[in-house]
Design brief:
This protein is of the alpha+beta class. The chain contains 12 helices and 10 strands. The two termini are about 30 Å apart. The structure holds flavin-adenine dinucleotide.
Length: about 375
């Protein structure tokens, strides 16, 4: 076994850390409060090569892997989760195109994502179907060589700022198996009948755009189908195997930030004639945070590394996503506790990080869904 990073990986970590520490801190609070983001930052990140590193060189990417994508994510989330999310979610859906798209689709779409010309999103969740993705009711029917898409989608990242949305819809309603009824269709956001309303008042990652979509007789060419008709559910599961290591890495970045903020705070805060760091109860907290971070990191890196080596261990990926999310939420609680009343104020960085943590246990498979995947792999 080799637990060492290559020189290239160390360089990526260093560059991502430098970029995030240089660009994010001054604007993080403003973006969080105003629920906005500056697209120039995305452009700079693209120019530095941080977006879509897992995209093949043939399509303008760096030809690296999901481990490198996770390493960048960890560095970005360790500085500010809202800005990190705005930048790195700009490629959310490119994994699906790289896996199942036609050669034309890959050549047309992927280079523009890497360069920042195109922001992509993926719309699966609906008002009445989240964890149960096969409950989705959005339909697409073929009419004179065009897909006609109708339905509603909920909580869609990049819904109002994106250029293309991959819509998970029912194309084969007559199929007996619910798992064979769905397909992915690419919908440009400037198509007639596409409407997006920004959802404001999120608890955390407020710089990131989240929207509710309505699709009313949206017409797109037949060639906008991604992958195979009726295979959308299976394609979605493969997509999640590539995106969940990234979400796990969000948890790693946040947990690292909680640990660093906590260490810094307890070494400086004086009480009862001593530093907060001098109390054994505090030391237990710091030790537990560091150990949990290490364990979550090992799960996440192993899942991503196996993926890049050609072995998709979906149970391990589910473990990493669940565990890294749980660790982030637990460490958020401990870190805020250590800050006392100061942590309860929005202006404090630890408060913004605390508000961001919970989403990791909810999106791209709630923690219960991840545990179902793990259990199924053990019991079936
Ligand atoms: C900020 C943000 C960004 C998002 N971005 C996107 C996006 O880009 N694209 C997209 O398609 N969706 C996106 N989502 C939606 C997200 O993926 C869903 O919220 C998530 O899948 C959960 O679905 P739900 O909210 O409908 O909750 P439900 O499915 O109603 O689940 C509610 C709760 O029930 C519990 N639960 C679920 N299943 C089980 C079970 N089998 N057994 C026991 N308990 C269970 C879980 O605790 C879960 O949190 C986003 C959401 C947010 C908040």
């Amino acid at each position: 076994m080799d637990f060492k990073f290559s020189k290239e990986q160390r360089d990526i970590i260093r560059a991502a850390r430098k970029f995030a520490q240089g660009e994010f801190p001054d604007r993080a609070y403003e973006f969080d409060q105003n629920e906005t983001f500056d697209p120039e930052l995305l452009q700079s990140a693209c120019e530095m090569g941080f977006v879509g590193v897992f995209i093949d060189e043939a399509y303008g990417g760096a030809g690296m892997g999901f481990l490198e994508h996770a390493l960048i994510c960890e560095e970005f989330w360790a500085v500010d989760p809202g800005i990190a999310m705005s930048i790195l979610s700009a490629s959310f859906g490119s994994e699906l195109i790289q896996l199942f798209g036609s050669e034309d689709q890959k050549q047309e779409i992927l280079p523009k994502i890497v360069s920042g010309q195109t922001i992509i999103g993926t719309a699966i969740t609906e008002p009445d179907a989240g964890s149960d993705v096969t409950g989705a009711r959005t339909t697409a029917r073929l009419e004179n060589g065009q897909w006609v898409v109708n339905g509603a989608k909920m909580f869609i990242t990049n819904g109002t700022v994106g250029d293309l949305i991959l819509v998970f819809c029912k194309t084969e309603p007559e199929e007996a198996s619910r798992h064979k009824q769905f397909s992915f269709i690419v919908v440009p956001t400037d198509a007639d009948g596409y409407e997006a309303r920004k959802i404001k008042g999120k608890m955390g990652i407020r710089a990131s755009d989240t929207a509710e979509l309505t699709l009313t007789d949206v017409r797109v060419p037949e060639e906008n189908l991604i992958g195979n008709r009726g295979q959308g559910f299976y394609e979605l599961m493969e997509f999640f195997n590539r995106t969940r290591p990234h979400v796990a890495a969000q948890g790693l970045g946040l947990t690292r930030a909680f640990l660093e903020e906590s260490i810094n705070h307890v070494k400086n805060r004086q009480m009862f004639g001593r530093r907060l760091a001098d109390f054994q109860a505090t030391q237990m907290k710091i030790a537990e945070m560091a150990t949990k971070l290490r364990a979550a990191r090992n799960l996440t890196y192993e899942g991503a590394w196996l993926l890049d080596s050609g072995k998709v261990d979906h149970a391990l990926i589910a473990m990493s996503k669940w565990f890294a999310g749980q660790v982030a939420v637990q460490c958020a609680d401990e870190a805020l506790q250590l800050f006392g009343g100061y942590g309860y104020i929005e202006e404090q960085r630890v408060n913004r990080l605390y508000r961001a943590a919970k989403i990791i246990e909810i999106y791209e498979g709630a923690k219960e869904v991840e545990k179902m995947i793990i259990a199924k792999s053990l019991l079936s």
